[in-house]
């Protein structure tokens, strides 16, 4: 049986898929493991579990980088393998994609699905900021101004929406992954201790960004670089927060710069409606409070923020009559994206 509709959000950290027939959302890590650089060994969560642990001849790759497809063939293999477990031939696809990327990068999302073995019936795209806003239960056609900040694994996307369209958008190419790298760097410099990306992520998730707590510690495993031996050590919350500070400030700067450029009428509405935080990083403890205090505009988060754009896509797919005009096909004659 063919003819299902899938919604896709191809993230740097996780791929999210909405299956219309089953009315369910699922996600898998954006990772693929290859053996001897030729054979596909594992995909998704299974491949990610092997990261930093795999034997020499197995390489774990992350085909998405900074919100765009960096390794086209690997990404195509990954997606095909994930969808193969389902009925995916002859289906329709709606993909949520970032706005502030080049036409070539946008086209790659389209080609990825259209020219894959999925033999897609149709492929359309929707701006991720719009899908996010619908996922936040914002009436996108009526709102006079609202800001969405999607903080993901490899990007931060800032979108200002008004009356069914995106007024301003900026994609910053840093996200959770870069925060974790900062933790790795600081622990290395400060303690001569080497930790992996997954350990850094665990530290960040445990400690969060902002709270009264200044005393917590967490025991982690790594390599003592002076002795060259594997060891366990305690890392304090202060060290982790210090590592996150600079990038959080970059994020605050980006929001403030955008706010300065917003047309006054939209800004007035935006100040009333506030900023909505989505993406997996919105789960970090204290992040909404930190941003609200730094920027001076109300910041709200939704439940399961990493699935927010998928919830929006689900609405778009289910209510084509209402939301159909927000989706585009790149083959349309009148196709035109935000300039
Ligand atoms: N409960 C949590 N606490 C803290 N951080 C979390 C939590 N859940 C997810 N994250 C972080 O969120 C990030 C992934 O978010 P998300 O799934 O939105 O990214 P993505 O869509 O794959 O990436 P992008 O949109 O940047 O391409 C990761 O860095 C992950 O560590
Ligand atoms: Mg994302």
UniProtKB/TrEMBL annotation:
<keyword id="KW-0133">Cell shape</keyword>
<comment type="similarity">
    <text>Belongs to the FtsA/MreB family.</text>
</comment>
<dbReference type="InterPro" id="IPR043129">
    <property type="entry name" value="ATPase_NBD"/>
</dbReference>
<dbReference type="InterPro" id="IPR018181">
    <property type="entry name" value="Heat_shock_70_CS"/>
</dbReference>
<comment type="similarity">
    <text>Belongs to the heat shock protein 70 family.</text>
</comment>
<comment type="function">
    <text>Forms membrane-associated dynamic filaments that are essential for cell shape determination. Acts by regulating cell wall synthesis and cell elongation, and thus cell shape. A feedback loop between cell geometry and MreB localization may maintain elongated cell shape by targeting cell wall growth to regions of negative cell wall curvature.</text>
</comment>
<comment type="subunit">
    <text>Forms polymers.</text>
</comment>
<dbReference type="InterPro" id="IPR004753">
    <property type="entry name" value="MreB"/>
</dbReference>
<keyword id="KW-0963">Cytoplasm</keyword>
<feature type="binding site">
    <location>
        <begin position="153"/>
        <end position="155"/>
    </location>
    <ligand>
        <name>ATP</name>
    </ligand>
</feature>
<keyword id="KW-0547">Nucleotide-binding</keyword>
<keyword id="KW-0346">Stress response</keyword>
<dbReference type="InterPro" id="IPR056546">
    <property type="entry name" value="MreB_MamK-like"/>
</dbReference>
<keyword id="KW-0067">ATP-binding</keyword>
<dbReference type="Pfam" id="PF06723">
    <property type="entry name" value="MreB_Mbl"/>
</dbReference>
<protein>
    <recommendedName>
        <fullName>Cell shape-determining protein MreB</fullName>
    </recommendedName>
</protein>
């Amino acid at each position: 049986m063919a003819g299902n509709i899938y919604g896709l959000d191809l993230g740097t950290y996780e791929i999210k898929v909405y299956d219309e027939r089953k009315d369910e959302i699922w996600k898998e890590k954006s990772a693929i493991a290859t053996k001897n650089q030729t054979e596909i060994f594992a995909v998704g969560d299974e491949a990610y579990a092997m990261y930093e642990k795999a034997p020499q001849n197995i390489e774990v790759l992350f085909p998405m980088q900074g919100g765009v497809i960096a390794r086209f063939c690997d990404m195509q293999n990954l997606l095909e393998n994930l969808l193969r477990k389902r009925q995916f031939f002859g289906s329709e696809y709606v993909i949520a994609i970032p706005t502030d990327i080049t036409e070539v990068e946008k086209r790659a999302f389209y080609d990825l699905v259209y020219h894959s073995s999925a033999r897609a019936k149709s492929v359309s795209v929707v701006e991720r900021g719009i899908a996010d806003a619908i996922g936040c239960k914002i009436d996108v056609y009526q709102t006079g101004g609202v800001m969405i900040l999607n903080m993901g694994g490899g990007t931060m996307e800032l979108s200002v929406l008004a009356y069914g369209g995106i007024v301003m958008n900026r994609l910053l190419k840093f996200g959770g992954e870069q925060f974790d790298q900062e933790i790795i760097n600081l622990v290395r410099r400060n303690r001569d201790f080497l930790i992996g990306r997954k350990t850094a992520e665990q530290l960040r998730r445990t400690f969060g960004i902002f709270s009264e707590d200044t005393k917590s510690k967490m025991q982690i495993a790594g390599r003592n670089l002076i002795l060259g031996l594997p060891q366990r050590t305690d890392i304090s919350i202060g060290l982790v927060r210090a590592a996150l500070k600079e990038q959080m400030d970059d994020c605050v700067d980006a929001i403030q710069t955008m706010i300065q450029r917003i047309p006054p009428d939209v800004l007035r509405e935006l100040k009333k409606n506030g900023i909505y935080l989505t993406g997996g990083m919105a789960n970090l403890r204290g992040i909404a409070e930190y941003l609200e205090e730094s920027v001076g505009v109300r910041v709200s988060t939704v439940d399961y923020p990493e699935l927010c754009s998928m919830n929006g896509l689900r609405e778009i797919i289910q209510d084509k009559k209402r939301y159909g005009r927000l989706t585009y096909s790149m083959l349309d004659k009148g196709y035109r994206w935000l300039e």
